[in-house]
Each structure stands twice: as structure tokens, then as C-alpha cells.
UniProtKB/TrEMBL annotation:
It is found in: Secreted. SUPFAM superfamilies: Cystatin/monellin. GO terms for cellular component: extracellular region. This is Retinoic acid receptor responder protein 2.
Length: 162
């Protein structure tokens, strides 16, 4: 009886967590969703990835809007693996796994008219959270600042954050 109770509690918890992740993704602005999707696309092409991943939560968001329908986006977020296999197209039934580490991602890119621009090339860096080093964090900031400075804008990380 106790085992059945624990199974029911764990099932409910998994459902709530996956629903919260989808709700968190749905609450992102379209420009930030595009960056998450860019990271998910890159992750799905990696040969070592065996699971389907979903957006878990944002850590840092910032953007600069210099005008003329241009925005510079920086988004630091976590992706969590699910019980679904890589390549799953319908993820409503995919529940987060708690036995695997999340993937820590940072993306930065320029948008024009709501679309990600090819130049400057978008920067996407994702790594399992336990492997993320301070050097990698510093490199991320440098790479993202290059995107902004290349166009004469202030640093992305000095802009307003949500």
C-alpha cells in the first residue's frame, strides 16, 4: 500500500514539474522562445544526447532595443531531460527526469523584425551543469558582448534583466 502511495505521489510530482516547465516556456516572449528553440535544435543534433529535453527555467534574461525593430538578446537558462527519447515531436506526455543533470545554456543573438539574424552569427553554448566552469561562463560573456559591440551597441549584460 505504501509503495502504491509513493508511486502516485511521484507520478503527480512529475506531471506538475513538466507542466511547470511548459508553462515557464509559454510565459517567455517570442524572441526568447526562439533562442530556446535554437538551443534545443543544436542539442538534438549532438550524437551523445539520447533524451528529449524541455525548457526548465530562465536564470538571466536581458535585451537591448536600439530601435529600428532590432533587438539584441541574451538568455541564460536550464533545459532538463525527459523520459522521452531524442527526436520526440509531441512532448506533452514527456515528464522531466530527476536522475540526470540539467543542461545549462546561454544564447545570444540579434533579431530584426522578430527574426534571428544570420549576422552576427548567433552564439549558443550548452553544457551539462556539473561541467560548467568559471572560464566557460567568462567566455560566454565575452562572446555575447562581441555580438553587441560588433554593431556598436552597449553590452548585452549591462542591459535591463527580467
Amino acid at each position: 500500500m505504501m509503495a502504491l502511495f509513493l508511486l502516485v505521489v511521484l507520478s503527480i510530482q512529475a506531471l506538475v514539474l513538466s507542466t511547470q516547465g511548459q508553462e515557464a516556456f509559454n510565459n517567455l516572449s517570442e524572441d526568447f522562445k526562439k533562442g530556446v528553440n535554437l538551443a534545443l535544435e543544436k542539442l538534438s543534433t549532438h550524437a551523445g544526447v539520447q533524451h528529449h529535453f524541455l525548457f526548465f527555467r530562465s536564470i538571466t534574461q536581458s535585451d537591448i532595443n536600439p530601435g529600428f525593430d532590432v533587438r539584441y538578446i541574451y538568455h541564460h537558462f536550464l533545459l532538463k531531460p525527459t523520459h522521452c527519447p531524442k527526436g520526440t515531436t509531441e512532448s506533452t506526455g514527456c515528464h522531466f527526469r530527476n536522475d540526470r543533470p540539467p543542461i545549462d545554456c546561454a544564447v545570444c543573438y540579434k533579431t530584426f523584425g522578430g527574426n534571428i539574424e544570420v549576422e552576427p552569427r548567433p552564439y549558443v553554448h550548452c553544457i551539462h551543469k556539473p561541467s560548467l566552469t568559471e572560464e566557460m561562463k567568462t567566455l560566454r560573456i565575452k562572446q555575447c558582448n562581441i555580438i553587441g559591440y560588433g554593431s556598436g551597441t552597449p553590452t548585452l549584460l549591462a542591459s535591463r534583466g527580467d
